[in-house]
Automatic annotation (TrEMBL), chains A, B:
Catalytic-site annotation from UniProt: E291 (5-glutamyl coenzyme a thioester intermediate)
Top-rank taxon, per record: Bacteria
Naturally occurring in which organism (per UniProt): Peribacillus muralis
Family membership: Belongs to the acetyl-CoA hydrolase/transferase family.
Protein name: Acetyl-CoA hydrolase
Residues covered by the Acetyl-CoA hydrolase/transferase C-terminal domain: 322-466
Pfam family, one: AcetylCoA_hydro
Length: 508, 508
């Protein structure tokens, strides 16, 4: 055993367990259920998945893959494309697996990210044959130290029949001590989660494990796949600017202070750009209580804007990753990584009163949001944590550009083709056009704000016409609709390649 | 002052404040915002609303009415029909006000029942000019003892500029001591809610009030309007039977014990019938953690089946009310009434791991539920607490008859015309036909269970045909739909009076 590995396995009971990836992969049989570490391309096991992909060249088998969130290419691209994933949950964000899902070749269960752990605990997800967990080290006390994410690893380790550890020697040692592992007891037997501030520590620095269950340790040197977010553009910067102006108004109204409230932001480029917008703002002493900590969070820490960030994973672009992981000591007292059950827990989200910022695919004139399904049928990524946060936060904000595909798609439609967030949970909508504050408003009173402030000007006449006709046809019901035409924008897009009505007119 | 009244105002600072209903009503001006006690026809102020209705005969004015939930006829029928309600939230269930809402004459904001208090605290609902609170007594310490509900009274009293108390001398004195008033601090400044069992007491027996804010006390003798639920029929009894068999299977699977988990049931006849079903079951030592405690809960206490019930209101039919209120001592150690912010709090619902049972208007083949809008446009009652409970409970169960209007309407449709509960939050669906356990299933895998187990046989061929065509058209996307036909059942109903396709065929 190399010294670097020897030093990372600090408990005698684990030292004799090192095996090759091929051997560990050989234990995994057709039909098994795997609980894998990883959350948004961070902290996922990599070499065992690739050994499974290799095995698939000569052997037919399929497994269920349960994770924290989306994984890197080893699983969500290569395992998917090798045809060895039967069922996948609770989130993905890779084209490789997405195509298989929408071709009915992989069963995908899209779940609230705080819910999976409860379902594992109840045995509804599982029983899990193998937990496969990337680790930074195994401590003297036998704790598994996670790497760049915690995700669902703690509950997988607790509930799985067997465990395989991928000991990754390439992650910086400074990650040790940044995790806070707290696992609630069964429902009905648990105590309040003892957290009243984003920086509170509740548990241990690693995941407790029964050494008997650990079948093998595989050494890995593969780094996380870097994040795929793109830098802010003019429109996402404008969205950030509208949002920050709105928060200034909330301060004036006495509903927020200068340090705002703990911020949550969904994964992806738009959400990252919104956070980046805080860089040039006057706000300071900010706190983050989120799932993924993306580049902008670290830029805000570097700039002295964010004083503490709690997440369940760190997902960075290549350059930012080098800087952060090369200087981890700077972040030691400003970061904590928690299980996603805690980072996304309604109890904490409501108690701390988060400001949550998540991305919409489309929003309708009454404020219902579709986060997941293109044209109502084709899965994009998944709901992720947006439902955990939006429903329970102080301010549930959704952001989107007002259009897509060069204007052929309006993000504001008469009736969303799939509902992930109901009218009850969408407080504020922001596009590059402006902002609609929907709080306390009845459905009909939201319409003008959404159309005039958020929709792209090209689509406003069509939206106004739909609403006017719907009001006339129903006589002013609570939520006027013309059901025959509710999805006509989507069907127009499918038939004519655009939601713009001019084409409809020509077709008539 | 009559002795009965004198004895109920036990603090000197309040004794001089008694006025007539007419005088109190005269303080309420056009445009004011009223925070009123009451939750599902229980514990609402009655004589001041009727004095306002009287005033409306000679004066034009309108007020906003914020409450706990639906109120009795004094407000939700008579004030509505008198045209003096401008805006109403967060819930109603009266034909009088419903007609005005759907004629665009009253603005109605349909909210999660746990959310209103947060919005009042933030000033988004409000600022409240007058809290009008029915009380059983004012204690020596100056606490307002509520009557048959707590609802949002505590937060209204805390945040309102002025308070009027309707001291109701007809309610039984034994209600005193049954309330537990606990109000969380502002978000970000609050502690965990210190509850780990349904019977835990967290606060005081009455609502703390600044005596300076109390402008008047009006004496009332009017009793709550009795509940309008109808007794279980053959079909609701069958629904209960399916549900109880399902719970037996959960025990066998090791996910529940013989005492189940704290039960929540929505308001109304179907939900009451389901609870009544437990009467003939083997289950014992049951606990209820719900909003409204309806007749069946007391029947279950009487039968020794329920050992403790926590709610935020008691709403009973006339006969049951006489029995319960005539023998309140029997229930003293088995009941607690809390603010709805606590009875419906996601923190507690998730911690205790409730089994929640709520009513659907319609459900689609993928498990999305419409609880509120007839044909997607016309408001029925409101979402109530169903969203608070279903999202955060251990088991989110929805019940409905499989059909309505003598078979002209199918409660199972291709695409619900309004979404209140998304596919992510609906664990189990029960109709008189059977039960669909949707937990852990992908959308396409839910379809057969919902159609074959829950839909009425008359509608199954149509549902199968829709799904088959949708799968073929999309090539097996995550959630197959034919958007052109998604609402064809609803439009057929509007045009031809039925969702049955035979009529569609004839029309072609």
């Amino acid at each position: 055993m190399k010294e670097s590995v020897f030093n990372k396995i600090r408990n005698e009971q684990f030292k004799g367990k090192v095996v090759t990836a091929e051997e560990a992969a050989s234990w995994i049989k057709d039909g098994m259920k795997l609980g894998m570490s990883g959350f948004t391309r961070a902290g996922d096991a990599k070499v065992i998945p690739m050994a499974l992909v290799e095995r698939a060249k000569t052997e037919k088998f399929k497994v269920d893959v349960y994770t924290g969130a989306s994984l890197g290419p080893e699983v969500d691209q290569h395992m998917a494309e090798a045809g060895i994933i039967n069922k996948r949950l609770p989130f993905q964000a890779d084209k490789g697996i997405r195509n298989k899902i929408n071709a009915d070749e992989i069963t995908y269960v899209d779940q609230h990210l705080s819910h999976t752990a409860e379902q594992v605990r109840q045995g509804l997800v599982g029983p899990i044959d193998f937990a496969i967990i990337e680790a930074l080290a195994i401590t003297e006390e036998g704790l598994i130290i996670p790497t760049t994410s915690v995700g669902n690893s703690a509950i997988f380790v607790q509930e799985a029949k067997h465990i395989i550890i991928e000991l990754n020697v390439s992650h910086p040692e400074g990650l040790e001590g940044m995790h806070d592992i707290y696992t609630p007891a069964r429902q009905g037997e648990r105590q309040p989660i003892p957290m009243t501030a984003t920086s509170d520590r509740l548990g241990s620095i690693g995941i407790p494990v029964d050494p008997e269950k650990v079948m093998g340790i595989v050494v890995s040197t593969d780094l996380d796949a870097p994040s795929t977010i793109v830098p802010p553009d003019e429109e996402t910067a404008t969205i950030a600017s509208h949002l920050i102006n709105f928060l200034r108004e909330e301060i004036k109204a006495g509903r927020l202070t200068e340090s705002l409230a703990p911020l949550q932001s969904g994964v992806g480029s738009v959400a990252n750009a919104v956070f980046a917008g805080f860089l040039d703002s006057e706000f300071t002493d900010l706190e983050v209580y989120s799932e993924v900590l993306q580049d902008a969070v670290f830029d805000l820490i570097d700039a002295g804007k964010v004083k503490f960030a709690s997440g369940c994973s760190i997902t960075l672009a290549e350059e930012k990753g080098k800087q952060v992981y090369g200087n981890l000591d700077q972040y030691r007292d400003k970061l904590v990584l928690r299980p996603q059950e805690i980072s996304n827990h309604p109890e904490i989200i409501r108690r701390l009163g988060l400001i949550s910022i998540n991305t919409a695919l489309e929003c309708d004139i009454y404020g219902n949001v579709n986060s997941t399904h293109v044209s109502g049928t084709r899965m994009m990524n998944g709901i992720g944590g947006s439902g955990d946060f939006a429903r329970n936060s102080r301010l549930g904000i959704f952001v989107t550009k007002s259009y897509a595909k060069g204007g052929k798609i309006s993000s504001i439609v008469p009736f969303v083709s799939h509902v992930d967030h109901t009218e009850h949970d969408v407080d504020v909508l922001v596009t590059e056009q402006g902002i609609a504050d929907l709080r306390g408003l009845a459905p009909k009173d939201r319409v003008e704000l959404i159309i005039e402030n958020c929709a792209h000007p090209d689509y406003r006449p069509q939206l106004r016409a739909y609403f006017t006709e719907a009001v006339a046809q129903t006589g002013g019901h609570q939520t006027p609709h013309i059901l025959e035409k509710a999805f006509s924008w989507h069907t127009n897009l499918m038939k004519n390649g655009t939601m713009l009505e001019a084409v409809l007119q020509v077709q008539k």
